[in-house]
Design a protein that fits this description.
Distance between the termini: 29 Å
Helix content: 40-55%
Number of helices: 11
Shape: globular
CATH topology of the largest domain: Rossmann fold
Number of domains: 2
Strand order of the largest sheet: 2-1-3-4
Radius of gyration: 21 Å
Structural class: alpha/beta
Length: 335
């Protein structure tokens, strides 16, 4: 069919895949970290306190004290490529280019910071994507991670006159492809060590205890991941939760306290990994690999190893390709 001369350009019909992750500041300087923390900690999905109560605390105390400490932590893990989380998420998207056929465009975005979910979702629509798979890279579902990433995408969809069709990637905490990828990478990491760990710790990001009581399935998802992985590996895993913030009761046991307690009870060699993170970031590279080591060794431990996340390594990319191909079924033919 020949279009009339005054017809606006029509982009080829495509399908979009938008990988999303938590977020990162633009730099490791204090102003950048403050902007990031303001956006992150203003999200009612993250801090479930009435904003009229929380905002004066956030703006009056936290944003005047925490950014400097966080900036110092970011400085320890920042690289020439910038934030590890952003660099790795970008690498994951690039590794998946062409994996689902020429008609599928793979992009990436951050819930907080840049590139923003709304901007990249709009870019996919402008590129002719009439169908988009939103893929939050959180194996275990949590309202403070998966839901808020989808919320931000849905908020931008509400501004569109012509919306693309949307699917969302479900949590994959117990998916055989995910468990197999974890098993492969953890066992490879253990095999490369020059010592045999007496304890293997699976550290998940912490959440307030209240989230479990309100019906969030996150704690159950974490426990199931650890159980399935332990069964697959044929060894016991110690489950712990990191990154506590504020005075509220959090899911436990706490990772830092677990490391210290193991050392005090005579365990001298440990390895730790973070199966709930799809990419290494501040919480893994600084909190676990640096401060975790310090806590363990100060309590009497002698051998400590942090095992990296799936990242953009072959096992992780194979897993993502498997999960995303399944969700694209009926939209895109296998590449």
């Amino acid at each position: 069919m020949t279009l009339p001369p005054d017809h606006p350009p029509i982009a080829p019909r495509r399908i979009g895949v938008l990988l999303t992750n938590l977020g990162t500041p633009d730099g490791h300087d204090v102003p950048s970290v403050r902007r990031y923390l303001k956006e992150f900690l203003s999200d009612p999905r993250v801090v479930e306190i009435p904003q009229i109560v929380w905002q004066p605390i956030l703006r009056g105390i936290i944003l005047n004290t925490r950014p400097r400490k966080s900036a110092e932590a970011y400085e320890q893990v920042w690289s020439e490529d910038g934030s590890p989380l952003a660099a790795i998420t970008k690498a994951q998207a690039r590794a998946l280019e062409g994996a689902f056929g020429e008609q599928v465009v793979v992009d990436w975005a951050m819930r907080y910071g840049r590139p923003a979910i709304a901007d990249r979702l709009q870019a996919l629509k402008d590129a002719g994507c009439e169908r988009v798979l939103l893929a939050p890279l959180y194996p275990q579902y949590c309202a403070a991670t998966t839901a808020t990433a989808n919320d931000r995408a849905f908020a931008h969809l509400a501004t569109m006159r012509w919306q693309p069709a949307i699917r969302t990637l479900p949590p994959y905490h117990d998916d055989p492809a995910y468990i197999a990828a974890l098993k492969e990478t953890v066992e490879a990491g253990l095999a490369a060590l020059d010592f045999e760990p007496e304890a293997l710790i699976a550290s998940f990001h912490g959440m307030p205890q209240r989230t479990l009581e309100l019906g969030d399935p996150y704690h159950c998802h974490c426990q199931k991941t650890a159980r399935l992985l332990g069964e697959a590996m044929g060894r016991k895993l110690t489950v712990a939760f990191q990154s506590r913030f504020g005075p509220a009761k959090w899911l436990g046991p706490a990772t830092d306290e677990t490391l210290e307690e193991l050392a005090k009870t005579g365990v001298r060699r440990v390895a730790i990994f973070a199966p709930g993170f799809s990419a290494d970031c501040l919480e893994t590279l600084e909190e676990l690999a640096i401060r975790g080591r310090e806590s363990f060794e100060e309590a009497g431990g002698t051998h400590f190893a942090y095992l990296p996340c799936l990242n953009a390594e072959p096992a992780g990319i194979r897993m993502l390709k498997s999960l995303l191909s399944r969700e694209l079924a009926g939209w895109a033919a296998p590449a």
